[in-house]
C-alpha cells in the first residue's frame, strides 16, 4: 500500500537537464529514490532553460545530446519503483530540445498550409509522436492552442497556428490527435490562452484584460473545441485574467476559479491538468516559502506539477493541507494516464535510428503546400530569360555561408547597377521577436534602399512575423514567404521562381 505522500509524489514532474553535472544527475536520482516522484520533464541544459530568463539567444552547442537523453532515461527508469512518466516540451519535435533529431515546421508555418491542413498537421503530430515514443518519451507538452492575436507577443508568435480562432482550434486538435495516434500523450496549452499578452511569463505576469464574453469567443474557443472532442490533457499558463477571477490579478496556473470552476465545471473538462513550469517568474516570486506554491497549484486543480524547484517541501505541504479523498482522486488520474501511455511496461531502450529520407520527403511535401507568393506575381519564364542573359542578380542576407538556395539558383552576383532585376534572399536569424528577430537595422535599411532602386523579388525564409521590419511590401515587385529555412523549403522556393 502506498501512503499519502507517495501518492502526492506521483504528481511531480521536476526538470531534468540532459547536459548537466554528475552532481546534478545524482540529485535527480535522490529525488527518485527518496521522494519517489512520478515523472521527469527533460530540457536540453540549464543554460538553454536560462536563455528564456536572460533574454539572450542560444549559444551552447553540445554533442551527443540524443544518446545522452536515452542514457539518462534508462538510468533514471532503472531506479524508480513505479516507472517514471517522461515528458518533453517539443512543439516542433524532439529537435526543439535535442540536436540532430528530426525538426518539423513551426505551428505558424503549418497554419499557412493551403490545402488539407488538418490532415497534414495530424501527420506531423503523428511523426513527431513516433520519434518521441521510440526515444522513451511518453508525453509531449504540446501543441499550443493559443490564438496569436497580439503581434507584439514576445512569447507565443511562431508557436501558434495563427490569429484565426477556428483555424487554431482545428489545427491544435489535429496535432494533438496525431500524437495520440502515435501512442504518446499530448496537451493543449496555455489555458486560458496566452496569445493576446505582451509580457513573457518567464519574466513577469502577463495580464489579459478582456471580458468573459470576449474570452469565450476567442481565447477559450480552441480549448472548448478540444474538450468537446475528448482531449485528455490541458496545460494551464501563468497569466492573469481578472475577468475570470473576480477582478484579482492571480495567475491562472494557481487559480481555483479558473481551473476547477471554469475549466472543469463550466467547460466540462474531465482530463488531467498540467501546470506550466512552476519556476517561471510569473508565479515563482509570489510564494517565497518553499512548498507553498506547489500547494497552491495543487489546490487550484492541477494534477501534474511541472518544473517544481521544491519537490520535498511541496509534497509535505500538500500532504498537510489536502484531504485523503483529493489526493486519491489525483493519484488515480495520474496512474490511469501511466497505464494508458504504456509507462508501467517501460523497458530499457536502445538509441533509435531515424528515417531521414522519409522525413525529407515529408518536409518537401509540406513546403510545396505552405510556400506562398504573398504579394505581387512571379513570372518564371521571364526570370529564366533574364538569368540566361546575365541580367538577374541575387543577393542574400543574414547567412554565414552561401545558402542551399543560392546553389539552386546558381546566379552570378552581378554588380547591382548591371542587374535589371534582383532576387533578395532574407534568412531571418531568429524565430523570436527580440532585437527585430536578430536582424541588424543597417542591413534592413540596405534591403529597403535596394527595393526602391530596382525591381526586387523578396524571398523571406523564417518567421513571417519578421516581415514587418522589411518596410512596405509594395516596394518589392513580389514577395515569397518561405516560412522556414529548411533545405527542402529552399528547393521548393527555387522551383517557384522557375529554377
From TrEMBL:
Pfam families: Glyco_hydro_3. One of its GO terms (biological process) is carbohydrate metabolic process. Keywords: Glycosidase, Hydrolase. The keyword Kinase does not apply. It catalyses: Hydrolysis of terminal non-reducing N-acetyl-D-hexosamine residues in N-acetyl-beta-D-hexosaminides. Its EC number is 3.2.1.52. GO terms for molecular function: beta-N-acetylhexosaminidase activity. The keyword Hydrolase applies. InterPro entries: GH (IPR017853), Glyco_hydro_3_AS (IPR019800), Glyco_hydro_3_N (IPR001764), Glyco_hydro_3_N_sf (IPR036962), NagZ_Beta-hexosaminidase (IPR050226). It comes from the Bacteria. Residues 26-329 form the Glycoside hydrolase family 3 N-terminal domain. SUPFAM superfamilies: (Trans)glycosidases. Belongs to the glycosyl hydrolase 3 family. This is beta-N-acetylhexosaminidase. It comes from Algoriphagus hitonicola.
